[in-house]
């Protein structure tokens, strides 16, 4: 009995030891700690901290589907990149745009970096992807590829009071308060337009100031094209009147140049009617004095002819971040055929 008890005890001890060794063999390593993305609310909604840094990042953009209607409508699509030549009076195109905005705090204030990538497609094979903006900004100084003050306009689609090209490699300083800004910018005007035999790679100097006072907003913009040795100045203002906002604008150009080349002078007006919370209707008109450029290669000047334009734009907010827009415009130059154009647009922002 003693031998039998000893054998049974030994077997039980060996089983316990073996079981302990087997259990030790399958114990999983503890997982590494995970650093979750943190919300950054210092610069507004949509920002989050890049893991492991104190830099806040925001990603936003939009998807746009648009059908242009006009004589030889493909030429309009070309302005957004990616067009196919055709003899039709309509053309459909799609755009996707993504913007990355990074911000971090410094002793000079927020350091901002922006990259905007835009892709335009006229069809499955004819497409164009481009850098739409890329710039850094700190303490009022901005440098890089960005849109000038001349890209601004009234809220509708009728006014034609901006530069033919508004995206430049530039460096500028802008002073801002809550209701006022003023600044100066040096712009590389490399992509024209050029007159009198001049070639690319000139530069321009622009100034901008604006602000708001109660229901009234205003903006004054001026630019001098050093290559064409001509300049332009523009003033805009809006004021809340009744159920909408009245907008007025005027522009004057000494001769055709990179900042304004449509006419020697022009005036524009619109009334943006807030019909409902979702519906905005904006009729507008514009009159051009000395419309069009003559002798562009030798002695560029504005013509002696005038023109006028009228149109309307309807904006409808279908749901949050999803909207529709319809615009129809009629242009009647004094020395050329009148033209009716327009578009239908669907856009989803995120």
Question: Can I get a quick summary?
Answer:
With 350 residues, the protein is mainly beta.
Task: Give a written overview of the molecule.
With 350 residues, the protein is mostly beta strands. It has two helices and 19 strands. Strands 2-3-4-5-6-7-8-9-10-11-12-13-14-17-18-19 form a 16-stranded antiparallel beta barrel. A two-stranded antiparallel sheet has the order 15-16. The longest helix is centred in the first third of the chain and has 24 residues. The model has no long low-confidence stretch (mean pLDDT 89).
Keywords:
globular; mainly beta; 19 strands; 350 residues; two-stranded antiparallel sheet; 2 helices; single chain
**Average pLDDT score:** 89
**Beta-strand residue percentage:** over 45%
SSE order: HEEHEEEEEEEEEEEEEEEEE
Given the helix and strand composition, which structural class is it?
A: mainly beta
Through-space gap between termini: 84 Å
Pick out the low-confidence regions: none
Instruction: Tell the overall outline.
Output: globular
Helix content: under 10%
Helical region count?
2
Spatial ordering of strands, largest sheet = 2-3-4-5-6-7-8-9-10-11-12-13-14-17-18-19
Question: How many DSSP-defined strands?
Answer: 19
């Amino acid at each position: 009995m003693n031998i039998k008890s000893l054998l049974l005890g030994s077997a039980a001890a060996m089983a316990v030891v073996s079981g302990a060794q087997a259990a030790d063999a399958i114990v999983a390593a503890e997982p590494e700690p995970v650093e979750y993305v943190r919300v950054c609310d210092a610069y507004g909604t949509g920002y989050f901290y890049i893991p492991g840094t104190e830099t806040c990042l925001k990603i936003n953009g939009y998807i746009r589907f648009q059908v242009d209607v006009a004589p030889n409508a493909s030429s309009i699509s070309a302005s957004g990149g990616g067009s196919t030549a055709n003899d039709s009076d309509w053309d459909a195109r799609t755009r996707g745009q993504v913007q990355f905005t990074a911000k971090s705090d410094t002793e000079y204030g927020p350091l901002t970096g922006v990259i905007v990538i835009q892709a335009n497609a006229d069809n499955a094979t004819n497409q164009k992807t481009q850098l739409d903006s890329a710039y850094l900004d700190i303490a009022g100084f901005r440098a890089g590829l960005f849109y000038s003050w001349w890209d601004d306009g009234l809220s509708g689609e009728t006014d034609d009071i901006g530069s033919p090209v508004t995206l430049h490699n530039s460096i500028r300083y802008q002073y801002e308060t809550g209701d006022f800004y003023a600044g100066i910018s040096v712009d590389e005007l490399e992509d024209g337009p050029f007159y009198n035999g001049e070639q690319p790679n000139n530069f321009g100097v622009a100034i901008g100031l604006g602000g708001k006072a109660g229901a009234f907003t205003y903006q004054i913009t001026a630019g001098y094209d050093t290559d064409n040795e001509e300049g332009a100045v523009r003033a805009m203002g809006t004021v809340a009147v009744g159920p909408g906002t009245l907008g007025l604008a005027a522009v004057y150009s000494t001769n055709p140049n990179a900042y304004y080349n449509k006419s020697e002078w022009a005036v524009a007006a619109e009334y943006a009617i807030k019909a409902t919370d979702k519906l905005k209707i904006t009729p507008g008109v514009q009159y051009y004095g000395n419309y069009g450029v003559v002798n562009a290669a030798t002695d560029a000047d504005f013509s002696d002819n005038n023109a006028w334009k009228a149109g309307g734009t309807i904006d409808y907010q279908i749901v949050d971040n999803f909207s529709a827009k319809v615009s129809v415009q009629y242009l009647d130059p004094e020395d050329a055929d009148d033209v009716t154009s327009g578009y239908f647009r669907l856009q989803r922002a995120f």
